[in-house]
């Protein structure tokens, strides 16, 4: 009741004062405004929920997606570096719509001679070029890349189609009704690019000994996604934003030189035809080795193989269920090792293939990193559902596909390597193997929202890397994004931007989302609450197509936390965190009311009489009386020191205020105030700290948890800047 009386009195006092002021001067009419509070709900930006993508973030009862099955015969011509393919496609229309045509992705056309990708770049004259670059840029050199589509047919008859750069529209003889399937065939070939000299996510690396290492992906015409969010996701492939793909079943036969070692997405169907008896025995041993990798092909055997050339071929046959893509790697140079991984009682194989140029680094770490990644990602998401994960060494690549990825990290020719090379290799393997979870299983639209696979994957990567090496420098923590966020705003894009026009792609799509989710887990939600919500989202959208709204809503739905303020600020804006200490005011306990309180007590005598005994707070040290509370303290120690601290927020983002108090005896105390402290005042807030001993310093965000871009205002007493700090500030300005 006393609390209610205090509130009523406060209201009465403020209202009376306001009325008196209005009598003195007439106020100008002020314009109204819309709700711009940082904590307003996101109903204005998120898609309206429906029976496929629900308000809880889960798939709805009407959710559906298409299915595409492939049967392919692939042949590698090593002499000409050409790949020839013949694929039979079965398209399942699981939607409620009649489809008049199908869209097929032709990614190899991005590097075709008539590609628009080079023309879409703003390029000035370079002071130096390779002769090949000069020919390509100024002499219209033709390289012969891109798909040659030989046949598009159904039931043995030509099928009408139209190629628009990296997309091909297949016109159906009649509309494909809901629930129906359509079968057709595409025959094609293309010249494989040298991924070291020509660049690219796949291709081949040539070695001085005349051998090649083929890491092959985006190598076949693939169906685009059709859903109720985008319709056909047929945005052109400009070379950066990756893919949106449907799940399906694959049967793939790959013919390569007989002395090649090959692995791919899916299960090998003909081990006895392509592996020696010794190799098969080693595989059986590897399937039972949970501690160390077992060599299937040793370095000595690989070195012998690379000196020979077989004029015969072998066909490796694979089947894969419920995958969204297919990739493979082949070379006679491969060392091949594998070990078993226990994923909640299921054995999964961790596999590596690498030329001798990768050793000793690769045999020491690659397969062990694969195993660690599968274990750690499974803990935070779902049990890895496939039978294997393969890491293939390619000089300049870091790319991911179902069950297989291509990774850089090469020692010097004498076998030595720096910590930077080693950690780069561990990091890229963790990252690319992790992509099996995002987006190979939680199948987001990479073409539209890069962060949904790269950012989420980079976040889980942090935890996996720190498990592999507790001292690992992940580069994705909140402190690692400060330089980017505090930079030139004209060169920064919100995370929620389509990838092709994003500025500073790496920090935007990888580091900032990862740092934000790490902050959510460690600082805002706590690991237990965050992990349950993140796991819920991951399991809900296994083998499905989630949207950003599905992620945001699932995280809130499963945690019981309103995080709209965080999504809006961190993902939809380029605002920064900057929270500082504006002032610290020492206060004192006293038994003497100040002049203002005296006047109030006279004016509202009955009110104060009802309150009973009072003690007072003053800013006059000479009036201090720590004994004023003695008879009310019930034997407890009365704090002798009181400080009123005002925190201001020059930055646009709201964040928790993490405060570290240091006392005169050297002890420290942490207090955290939730982000909601900024709900009613976006500029400054006050808190009072009481202690039995003197507080000698106060620091905001002592462990750099909130990506604060300016820590010069985080301490009291304010630290004097040394010359180096002044120099850094000058450079920043």
UniProtKB/TrEMBL annotation:
Superkingdom classification of source: Bacteria
One Gene Ontology molecular-function label: peptide binding
Signal peptide: 1-20
UniProt record, GO biological process: peptide catabolic process
GO cellular component, one term: extracellular space
A Pfam family that the UniProt record links to this protein: Peptidase_M1
Keywords from the named record: Aminopeptidase, Hydrolase, Protease, Signal
Peptidase M1 membrane alanine aminopeptidase domain segment(s): 372-570
Name of this protein: Aminopeptidase
Organism: Polaribacter aquimarinus
């Amino acid at each position: 009741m006393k609390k209610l009386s205090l509130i009523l009195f406060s209201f009465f006092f403020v209202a009376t004062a306001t009325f008196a002021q209005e009598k003195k001067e007439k106020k100008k009419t002020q314009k109204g405004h819309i709700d711009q509070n940082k904590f307003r709900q996101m109903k204005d930006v998120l898609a309206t929920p429906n029976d496929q993508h629900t308000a809880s973030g889960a798939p709805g009862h009407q959710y559906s997606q298409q299915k595409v099955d492939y049967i392919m015969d692939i042949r590698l011509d090593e002499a000409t570096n050409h790949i020839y393919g013949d694929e039979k496609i079965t398209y399942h229309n699981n939607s409620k719509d009649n489809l008049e045509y199908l869209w097929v992705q032709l990614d190899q056309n991005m590097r075709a001679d008539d590609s628009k990708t080079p023309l879409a770049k703003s390029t000035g004259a370079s002071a130096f070029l390779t002769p090949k670059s000069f020919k390509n840029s100024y002499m219209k050199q033709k390289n012969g890349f891109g798909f040659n589509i030989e046949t598009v047919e159904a039931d043995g008859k030509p099928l009408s189609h139209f190629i628009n750069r990296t997309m091909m529209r297949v016109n159906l003889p009649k509309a494909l009704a809901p629930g129906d399937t359509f079968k057709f065939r595409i025959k094609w070939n293309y010249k494989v690019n040298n991924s070291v000299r020509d660049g690219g996510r796949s291709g081949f690396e040539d070695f001085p000994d005349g051998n090649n290492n083929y890491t092959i992906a985006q190598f076949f015409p693939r169906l685009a996604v059709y859903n109720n969010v985008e319709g056909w996701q047929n945005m052109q492939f400009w070379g950066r934003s990756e893919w949106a793909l449907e799940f399906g079943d694959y049967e793939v036969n790959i013919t390569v030189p007989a002395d090649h070692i090959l692995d791919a997405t899916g299960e090998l169907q003909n081990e006895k035809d392509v592996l020696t008896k010794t190799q098969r025995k080693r595989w059986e041993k590897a399937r039972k080795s949970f501690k160390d990798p077992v060599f299937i092909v040793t370095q000595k055997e690989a070195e012998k193989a690379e000196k020979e050339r077989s004029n015969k071929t072998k066909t490796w046959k694979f089947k894969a269920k419920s995958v969204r893509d297919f990739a493979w790697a082949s070379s006679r140079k491969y060392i091949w090792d594998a070990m078993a991984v226990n994923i909640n009682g299921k054995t999964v194989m961790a596999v590596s293939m690498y030329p001798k140029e990768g050793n000793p680094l690769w045999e020491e770490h690659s397969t062990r990193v694969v195993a660690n990644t599968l274990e750690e990602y499974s803990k935070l998401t779902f049990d890895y559902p496939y039978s294997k994960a393969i890491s293939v060494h390619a000089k300049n690549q870091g790319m991911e596909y179902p069950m297989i990825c291509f990774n850089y990290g090469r020692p010097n020719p004498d076998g030595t390597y720096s910590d930077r090379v080693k950690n780069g290799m561990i990091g890229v393997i963790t990252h690319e193997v992790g992509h099996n979870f995002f987006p190979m299983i939680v199948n987001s639209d990479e073409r539209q929202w890069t962060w949904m696979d790269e950012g989420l994957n980079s976040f889980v990567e942090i935890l996996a890397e720190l498990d592999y090496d507790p001292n690992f420098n992940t580069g994705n923590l909140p402190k690692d994004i400060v330089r980017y966020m505090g930079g030139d705003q004209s060169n920064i894009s919100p995370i929620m931007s389509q990838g092709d026009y994003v500025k500073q792609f790496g920090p935007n799509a990888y580091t900032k989302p990862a740092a934000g989710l790490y902050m959510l887990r460690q600082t805002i939600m706590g690991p237990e609450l965050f992990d349950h919500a993140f796991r819920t989202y991951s399991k809900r959208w296994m083998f499905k197509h989630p949207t950003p709204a599905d992620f945001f809503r699932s995280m809130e739905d499963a945690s019981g936390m309103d995080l709209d303020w965080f999504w809006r600020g961190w993902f939809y804006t380029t605002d920064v965190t900057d929270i500082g200490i504006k002032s610290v005011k020492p206060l004192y306990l006293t038994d003497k009311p100040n002049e203002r309180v005296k006047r109030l007590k006279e004016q509202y005598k009955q009110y104060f009489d009802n309150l009973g005994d009072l003690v007072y707070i003053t800013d006059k040290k000479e009036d201090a009386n720590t004994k004023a509370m003695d008879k009310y303290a019930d034997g407890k120690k009365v704090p002798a020191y009181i400080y009123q601290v005002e925190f201001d927020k020059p930055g646009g983002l709201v964040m928790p205020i993490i405060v570290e108090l240091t006392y005169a005896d050297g002890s420290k105390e942490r207090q955290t105030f939730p982000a909601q402290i900024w709900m009613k005042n976006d500029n400054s807030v006050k808190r009072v700290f009481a202690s039995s001993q003197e507080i000698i310093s106060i620091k905001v965000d002592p462990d750099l948890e909130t990506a604060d871009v300016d820590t010069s205002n985080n301490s009291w007493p304010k630290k004097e800047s040394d010359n180096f700090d002044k120099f850094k500030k000058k450079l920043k300005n």
